[in-house]
Amino acid sequence: MQQTMEKVDVLLGLQWGDEGKGKIVDVLTPEYDIVARFQGGPNAGHTLEFEGEKYVLRSLPSGIFQGNKLNLIGNGVVLDPVLFRDEVESLKKSGHNPRERLRISRKAHLIIPTLRMLDAANETSRGKSKIGTTGRGIGPTYTEKVARRGLRIGDTELANFREKYEETKLRHLELLQHFDFDTSSLAEKEKEFFEAIEYLKGFTLVDSEYFVNESLANGKKVLAEGAQGSLLDIDFGSYPFVTSSNTISAGSCIGLGIAPRTIGDVFGIFKAYCTRVGEGPFPTELFDETGKILAERGHEFGAVTGRPRRCGWLDLVALRYTIMLNGVTKLIMMKSDVLDTLDEIKVCRAYRINGKEVENVPFTMSEDIEPIYETLSGWKKDLTEIKQESEFPEAFRLYVDYLEKALQTPIAIVSVGPDRTQTIIR
Q1: Is 79 exposed, middle or buried (0-12, 13-18, 19+ CB in 10 A)?
Q2: CA 344, CA 314: separation in Å to the nearest integer?
Q3: Closest to 196 in 3D by CA, of 227, 165, 159, 228
Q4: Considering only CA atoms, which of 411, 419, 42, 79 is closest in space to residue 227?
Q5: Sequence-separated (6 or more) residues with CB below 8 Å from residue 87
Q6: Maximum CA pair distance of the chain?
């Protein structure tokens, strides 16, 4: 007989990232024993606010603030040891010490200094066709991984790590010479890198696939935390303006080493409107006063990059698509309060492409898409003080009902402000 195992619940974003995953992981963590990041790198910033403090996590799972929970950086993550060290030290200054409760996969890939340089060189060479990368070396690190040339965290434990590093570096320097890229700062960056490698080796490194599966077999509850958003998925996002990993729920199987049958609930997070950082298509983008209001009220600036986010109305065509891809069982709506002051709220229910109304996301979102909108009444009331669902203004309740019917998926949680206390469980 096969052993009964706990399920892994997955929490991820359904738009172009920045949906508020960090806050919700922090809210849900008390229900779990382990929180595990399964993809992405330090280009993804999860912002959490509680007890009057704001924290931005780049590589650490968002469950790190819950004292008795274990956190895992999975094999699907790419890790910059310098940024990792800075992040941990910053948390220690604020009274949090992640070392005891953090586990790091040996199979996670390392971002080395020359990969960051290659990222910058590649983006510059694209000219007007640039992707809008954060320049943190994530894309080139995943490229190395697929090309079977990457350096992994487990390699740092081997006697010949330095030799492997030098071979990799020389190969990168040849490429950088081709780009005529300035590498004069490399020696300084390498010194910092190897200091950070020693720091990293002070943490508990694990064979994460065994760690997760043995934890499940022992009755532990695991929450898999995604980074970025589903519309940035390398296969199913708005290609080529995407990230370099699989951001959808199936990515948690690869990024943690779990079987598909072990996935339980899939929590899909979306904002009550849409945002996007960097380049790429955005059918419902607003360039008017309403777009400015959303940006200002929503404090729409990247947690890691500081870049202003583009803002627009909620896109149900794209949202139905990502709900389908992820097998979402419960929806979580964020930043509802940002819409508090608007007289009316628009929702894109379909696209018009070449004169035809369509309800599917086309092969390329770069096509000339005209959004077809449904207009709903605004509630014109402050949601931030609301403590329970019974206090919802009628127009807001109708907005939530409309979305549930259109998406055919229950909205289980509604966020009405940035603090962990401003969260309504329905």
Answers
A1: buried
A2: 13
A3: 165
A4: 42
A5: 42, 57, 58, 59, 60
A6: 66
- Picking from 37, 39, 94, 56, the residue whose alpha carbon sits closest to that of residue 302 is 56
Q: How many CB atoms lie within 10 A of CB 198?
A: 11
Give me the pLDDT at residue 1, please.
44
Cis, bond preceding 240 (omega within 30 deg of 0) = yes
> Cα(424)–Cα(426) distance, rounded to whole angstroms?
6
**What dihedral do alpha carbons 230, 367, 302, 199 form, nearest 10°?**
50
Which of the residues 9, 18, 80, 233 is marked catalytic?
18
Give yes or no for a contact between 262 and 216, defined as CB atoms under 8 angstroms apart.
yes
Compute the distance between CA of residue 173 and CA of residue 188 in angstroms, rounded to an integer.
15
Residues 6+ apart with CB under 8 A from 92: none
Distance in angstroms (rounded) separating the CA atoms of residues 327 and 316: 16
Instruction: Tell me if residue 26 is catalytic.
Output: no
| Active-site hit among 9, 33, 46, 315 | 46
pLDDT for the residue numbered 303: 60
The closest alpha carbon to 312, from 341, 296, 331, 292, belongs to: 292
Indicate the pTM of the whole model. Answer: 0.92
CB 46 within 8 A of CB 26: no
What angle do the packed helices 186-200 and 113-126 form, to 10 degrees?
130
Residues of the chain with pLDDT under 50: 1
Q: Which residues, in sequence order, are bridge partners of residue 331?
A: 268, 411
Q: What pLDDT sits at residue 163?
A: 97
Q: Going by DSSP bridges, is the β-strand pair 222-225/102-105 parallel, antiparallel, or unpaired?
A: unpaired
In angstroms, the CA 195 to CA 199 distance is 6
* Residue 423 in tokens: 């969260």
Give me the phi and psi of 120, to 5 degrees please.
Answer: -65, -45
Is there a catalytic annotation at residue 18? Answer: yes
Closest CA to 329 of 251, 264, 245: 264
- Tell me, what DSSP letter sits at residue 179? T
